[in-house]
Every structure is written in C-alpha cells, then in structure tokens.
Amino acid sequence: MSDSYHFDTRAIHAGQEPDPTTGAIMTPIYQTSTYVQSAPAEHRGYEYSRTDNPTRTALQALLADLEGGRFALAFASGMAAIDTVMRLLQPGDHTIVASDVYGGTFRLFEKVLARYGLTFTYVDITDPAEVEVAVRPRTRMVWLETPTNPLLALADIGEINRRIRHTGQEILIAVDNTFASPCLQQPLALGADIVVHSTTKYLGGHSDIVGGAVEHDDEANYERLKFLQNAVGAIPGPFDCWLTLRGIKTLHLRMERHSENALRIARFLADHPAIEEVYYPGLESHPQHDLAKRQMRAFGGMISVVLRGGERAARAFVSRTRIFALAESLGGVESLIEHPHSMTHASTADSEIAVPPGLVRLSVGVEHVEDLIADLDQALGSLP
Ligand SMILES: *Cc1c(COP(=O)(O)O)cnc(C)c1O
Known about the structure:
35% of the residues lie in helices and 15% in strands.
C-alpha cells in the first residue's frame, strides 16, 4: 500500500481488497485445500493450500506492509517461523544469540538445532561490542530480541548492524519483534535483514490464535524461505489467518492503550514496598531508556518485576490477582501475569540464561488502568 498512508490506515487496509466475486469488504476465509484447474497446470495462481491460500496471501501482504518489508510469510506458530529462518543455515554455521532470548527459542536452538550441527553463542546484547567480539569465521546469523523476554533489555539494532557490517562477513541480522510489534518498532529500517513475530501475541491481540511471521527485504532470502515454507509445511490455516487479519485492524489502538496502561502500572510498582525492581523501558530508571526513546514509538505493554520476598512472594503474587489471569502468553487485550521461572522459562532452568526465581512478568491489557492498579495493589498487600 502507498507509503504516503500512515501506519494506522495501512493496518486496516493494506493487502486487502473487497472480494472480486461478491464485493464482501472482509477477506473471505478460503477454507479449501485445493483449486480447480482449467487444464493441466493452468490455474489462477493457486494450486494447493500448503503452497498458497488467498486468505494467507492477504495476511502476508499486510504483514509485509506494516513491517516496511517487501515480503512476508505466515507460519503456524512463532516457533515454526523461527525454525524456518534457521533452515537458511548449513551444519557448522554459527549464530550469536541474545542471552535472555525467549525460552522456546533457546530450547529450539539447544535441544533441536544443535543436534543438526548448528552452533550458538549467547551474549549480552545490551552491549553491541560484545556482539561484535563474538563473531567467528563461520558466524552467519545474529539473533536479537528487543525488548527481551522477560527482562525487557534492549538491543541497539542500528549500532549492532553497523558493527556487524564492519566485519565484512555475510551475516544475517534477525530480530524477534514480538514484544514491540511493527507498530512500535521497525527493525528492517534500522538495518536488520529478517524480522520474526509470534503473531499469537500483539499482532493477533486477542489470545485466540497461535501463529508466526517472517518479514524481509531480500529477494534471494525470500525465494529460499518461500521454498522452505512450502517444503517444510508449517503453515497457518485460513481461519487463523483471518483472525490475525481481523486482530491487526486495531493494532495501533491497542498498542497505544497497552503502552499508556503499562507506564502507569510500572510507576505504581516502582513505588511499592513489596517490589525490589521493575523492568520497563519506559521508566527513566531503565538503563536503556534513552535508546528505547530513540528506537521505539512507545514502550509497549510488558513489565517484569522482582519481588522483595523472592520466589515465595512471587508465587503468591501471581496466584492472588483477580483481573490479571495467571497464564502463559502475552499481548492480548486481557491482562495476564506469570512466573517465568516455573512457567514460560522453565526450559532455561540451570542454564546460562536462567531467570531469577523472584521474577514476575505482566502482560498489561487494555482494561481500565485504575482497575488494574487496584488489582495489583490488593494482591501485593496480602503477600506472605
Ligand atoms: C511467544 C513467543 C515466541 C514463540 O511463538 P509461538 O507463537 O508461541 O510459537 C517467540 N518469541 C517471543 C518473543 C515470544 O514471546
């Protein structure tokens, strides 16, 4: 869609045309596996729904447009998207990874892909010099998450890009943009080669689908990834694509409210005596607040806190909220709370990227902020 339109307009219209046969304004759910051909190999661009499906085509066009990339591919989950990107590599290739990467990404890299000859080094990506120092002759990928899950650390994408290009090696920079969403942060414009999303989170926005996406600008990578999407086959069904299309129409409205609510809540938590530390890039006390202001349009809806009372207090806190539901995942309209050490990040226990047991992660929803603060206040007030 025309670059002259603002993000909010493109979120509603990009990639979508009224249905040519009926005029239906919403993209139909093309719930079909195959397409009739008029003669052998004569068809209208669709042969089989693993390869292409019109509902998925519309979603992919929208995702590419919003991320400012030329191409996007949709997947059955965020993990399927990440796995497919990693298949661009060969055995023996080396990847530099953000040390507090999403637990599932760490598990995929260490427990699955390492068995096929890929190697990984985990570094503190808040320091671009550490990323540069970790480059080896076989380094082919830098895997960034910013902000990270669950510690909300930021990578300076532009500076890491500059340092990586400086090595003269052909290294792809991939950014997992799930926490920020394309509404708040655009890694391709900052020099990243590949963006991935768990569309399960803010893009879908309603906790009703599991999905993933990959966005990029390079034609050769696109051809290879498109080939892999079809050859490996981890594609989303048309109904999930349709729900994601529908969810994205309010992405800009939701991100604005998520960010407003989260900033108010982060300030409340920072002043609360039961809380030892608050991780939120929108707080002046966040060590990378200036970078967050430069790199993000707003600070998003994710907050992590460490309880003064440690693991016991953390477990009690997450069990006592009434509006904040105790659940994994994030990015939906409803507020969620969880204990990463025993839930989302249990697979990192005893590893070099383990999270502190007193940590609690909040996904701040779009409910009224005063109700949310009152809920947290009552839960914190009754801690052991
Ligand atoms: C949830 C998540 C994933 C994995 O996505 P799924 O859709 O659950 O497969 C990857 N990265 C981040 C940052 C996530 O939060």
